[in-house]
Amino acid sequence: MCDKGDKDTSARLLHQLSDVIDERGTVFVDFSSSLIVSNEEYISPYSVVALCHSGYVRSEYDLRPVEFRSHDIAVMRPGHIIKNIDMSDDYRAELIVTPVSYLNTMRKQYMDHHLATRKSFDMYPSQHLDDEQYRQVCDAFNLMRTACNVDGVYRDELISSTFHALMVLLSTYRYEQLDGMQDAGRQLSLRFNEALIEHYRESREIGFYARMFSLSPKYFSTLIKQETGYGAGEWIDRYVVLQAKALLMRMRSLSIQEITYRLGFPEQASFSRFFRRNTGMSPTEYRDRVK
Q1: With a threshold of 0.85, does the pTM exceed it?
Q2: What CATH number is associated with residue 9?
Q3: Number of domains composing the chain
Q4: For a Cys staple, 6 with which of 2, 38, 85, 88, CB 3.0–4.6 Å?
Q5: Model confidence over 66-77: pLDDT tens digits?
C-alpha cells in the first residue's frame, strides 16, 4: 500500500490491479483511506460492487455529488465518471472488481432479469443498509471473497453463482425503492451517459446525442446543465479526455497514433489538439507525467 503523501489515485490503483483483474476475471479488494488521496477524475473500466464498513468518502458520480458511508452498498458499472473528493482516515471498504468481458458472461447466465435494479443503481449508485441487511451482505461478501480466492476448473462458475446470489439479495432491498426513483432529469443525464459509453468514438457533437432524444442541441444542452451543472459539450469533452487518459496510462504499448484511432479521431494531429486544449499538455507529455 502507499501512504497519503504518494499522490496516488484511484485510477492508478485500478491500473496497478489491471493485470490481476484481467488474469483472474474477478478480484476481491480490501480498500482503505491509505490507498487513495487524489481528487482526479477517472472512468473505471471495471464493474465495482463496494461495501463500506467504516468512515466515509465524498465523491462525484457522473458529475453529481454522492456520499458513501458506513453500512452503505454501492454498485457501479463500467464507463461512469468518478471523482473522489474527500475521505475519512477510518474509511474501510471491500470491493468486488470485475472486467467487462466477465461481467457480460455473468449477465448472460444470470442477470438479465435484474435490469430494473441495475438501472436504479446507475441512477443512484449507493444504498444504506439496516443492521440486518448489512449482516446479510457481509455474509455474501465473505462468500465472494472465498470464491475469488479459490482456483480450479469450477472457479468461474462459483464466482458467477455467488455474484448472482449477491445481486438477487441487493435487488430484494432495492425493489421497494424503485417507485421513488423516477427523476426525469436524472433519467435524461443517465441515458446521455449511456449513449456516450456506446458512441463516444463515433461522435463528439452535441447534435448527434440530442437527436437520440428528439431534442434540439441547445435545449438538450440546457437540460443536461440544469441536471448536472455542466453543458452537454463540456460533458462530452471531459468524457473523451478521461478515456484518453486511461488509454495513455494503462495501454503503454499503444502508440499515440493507435490511441488516436481507438478514440475515433481522424488523425493524430486533431487528437493532440483536442487533448492539449482540454488538459494543457500533449498526450506524450501526459503519458510521461504519469509514469
Answers
A1: no
A2: 2.60.120.280
A3: 2
A4: 2
A5: 899 999 999 888
